[in-house]
Design goal:
Layout (H helix, E strand, L loop, with lengths): L2 E6 L3 H16 L3 E2 L8 E6 L4 H17 L4 E6 H5 L1 H5 L4 E6 L6 H8 L6 H8 L7 E3 L5 E3 L36 E3 L21 E3 L1 E2 L10 H5 L3 E2 L2 H13 L4 E5 L16 H11 L4 E4 L9 H9 L6 E3 L7 H7 L5 H14 L4 E8 L6 H12 L5 E6 L17 H24 L5 E10 L12 E5 L4 E3 L10 E10 L2 E8 L6
Parallel strand pairs: 1-2, 1-3, 3-4, 4-5, 5-8, 9-12, 12-13, 14-15, 15-16
Antiparallel strand pairs: 6-7, 10-11, 17-18, 17-20, 18-19, 20-21
Length: about 500
């Protein structure tokens, strides 16, 4: 039986794509391996949001091939969509498949390994022995399954774009690839992946939106993900039902621009409307909203999170800069005053709400004065954590051609200053949690404590407001809803949460 190893890079939307792809490969009869050391195919589902993300993929490819020379590497995702020729030039890469055709990977690999796949598995997928039938997977993708009995090479879908030549042997024989097969094309408006396969053991991600219509000057994502498109609300509801029936208690709704959900649908529906339907029509215990843009955080959305205990008390709202001048250079669609208004409303209405942000440092043209203004603005907000990252030049973006690129050392120093300011604010927020009763979900992993053996490490739980909390007991199982009282905080971390009676709704 052919085997595969799949690893995901980047955002939660990419993780959801990877989960769906994994489900397709398993359904087609492939066997998953825990590492790339003994697999036939390594599938890398990539990110390209920064140069560092690209470099990490190249490093992983080299590491895989050092440990397994017979492995064939398939690179897909955002990096593959952006720079297919670059990836095709890397040693050991057999296939490069962009986001445009990521949904055909199971077809491609089934055709490549059809002789080694279990016949009964292929028959179960096609519906009849030896037939080339378009089978609809449970993951929302139709795949052409090749005729195994006659030994006919599988047909590559006509919509695929072959960018590099493929050398073949005699007529009727399987194509022998002497250079990587590159399958990249224009991204369609279809929502290809419906990720019913949950790859997270406690908190699966449900991607309900893909693509982005905004054109932030630093961002490559609209080029590699396409225009905004939404999963139909009835399909979302069905997926939530399936995840609940499978035993999951928390799901994370994700998207590339989540607040844009429904604007492409007819009839129109808003993200708020989708949340209201999920709460009314499903029994899932908790719904967490992943990153959402500031102008999509409406008073109505804050009010819904305030009223509904099944919605996690947690917002992640990208800021990027606290300088209005820099925000204009970035082509962001809000002013700092609008951002502050929303964050302060969250804290006023939901005092224990976890509030996170993304902040970019070293954007082209960012001066020392801009940074000081941004630092003071961030320090004025009740944020509980911030993801700080340096600007990374992306090809074919407006920012890449801007003058006054900032030195990397200066970007690093500015990032350290912002992290220090937010760490102080986080400490105040954590101290305020002592003595409070918080609802949480136990996770699969144990607490990363340096002074205890693996088997003796306490399990951790994730709080509704996005705090990770070590528990004082070892026996509790993962995926359990609990209530607990915070008893200790030290060095910016919750150290202990003691269980008490009462669980959040199940």
């Amino acid at each position: 039986m052919p085997s595969f190893y799949l690893t995901n890079f980047g955002c939660r939307a990419s993780q959801a794509d990877g989960a769906a792809l994994k489900g397709q490969l398993l359904e087609c009869g492939f066997e998953e391996t825990p590492s790339a050391g003994d697999c036939d195919v390594a599938v890398l589902n990539t990110c390209t949001v920064t140069a560092a993300a690209d470099a990490e993929v190249r490093q992983v490819i080299r590491r895989i091939l050092r440990g397994n020379r017979r492995c064939r590497v398939l690179v897909t995702g955002c990096y593959a969509q952006r720079a297919p020729e670059e990836i095709a030039g890397l040693e050991g890469v057999a296939w490069v498949v962009g986001n445009s055709h990521k949904h055909t990977i199971s077809t491609l690999l089934t055709g490549e390994f059809c002789a080694a796949l279990p016949k009964r598995q292929l028959e179960a997928t096609t519906g009849s022995p030896g037939s080339a039938t378009a089978a609809t997977h449970a993951y929302g993708v139709r795949a052409q399954i090749p005729d195994v009995d006659r030994g006919v090479p599988p047909e590559v879908p006509s919509s695929l774009v072959q960018l590099l030549d493929v050398q073949t042997t005699s007529v009727g024989a399987r194509a022998q690839l002497t250079s990587p097969q590159v399958l990249v094309g224009e991204i369609s408006e279809s929502f290809h992946f419906i990720p019913t396969f949950a790859d997270d053991r406690t908190r699966p991600t449900l991607k309900v939106q893909d693509g982005c219509n905004a054109r932030c000057s630093f961002c490559i994502i609209p080029d590699v993900r396409g225009r905004s498109r939404s999963l139909a609300p009835d399909v979302v509801i069905d997926q939530v039902h399936r995840l609940h029936e499978a035993g999951y208690r928390e799901i994370v709704l994700s998207g590339i621009n989540l607040g844009g959900y429904g604007r492409d649908l007819e009839p129109r529906i808003t993200f708020l409307g989708l949340l209201e339907r999920i709460l009314a029509e499903t029994a899932i215990a908790r719904v967490r909203i992943s990153s959402i843009e500031p102008m999509d955080v409406t008073p109505a959305l804050i009010g819904l999170v305030t009223r509904e205990s099944r919605l996690a008390r947690h917002f992640h709202v990208p800021l990027q800069s606290g300088s209005d001048r820099v925000l204009r250079l970035m082509n962001r669609r809000y002013w700092t005053a609008q951002y502050a208004e929303r964050i302060l409303a969250m804290r006023e209405q939901i005092p224990d709400c976890g509030i996170g942000a993304d902040v970019m440092v070293g954007f082209p043209g960012e001066t020392d004065d801009d940074h000081e203004i941004s630092l003071r603005f961030i320090d004025s907000l009740p944020l509980t954590y911030v993801h700080v990252f340096p600007y990374s030049q992306r090809p074919n973006t407006a920012a890449a051609a801007m003058p006054n690129q900032v030195n990397g050392r200066i970007s690093h120093e500015r990032g350290q200053q912002i992290r220090a300011a937010v760490d102080r604010k986080r400490g105040v927020f954590l101290d305020a949690q002592i003595g409070r009763v918080l609802s949480a979900l136990t996770l699969h992993q144990a607490h990363e404590s340096a002074d205890t053996a693996d088997d003796d490490r306490p399990r951790v739980a994730l709080n509704s407001n996005y705090l990770m909390m070590p528990l004082c007991v070892l026996w509790i199982l993962p995926n359990m809803p609990i209530d607990g009282r915070v008893t200790q905080v030290r060095a910016g971390q919750l150290l202990e949460m003691r269980l008490i009676q009462g669980l959040f709704p199940v």
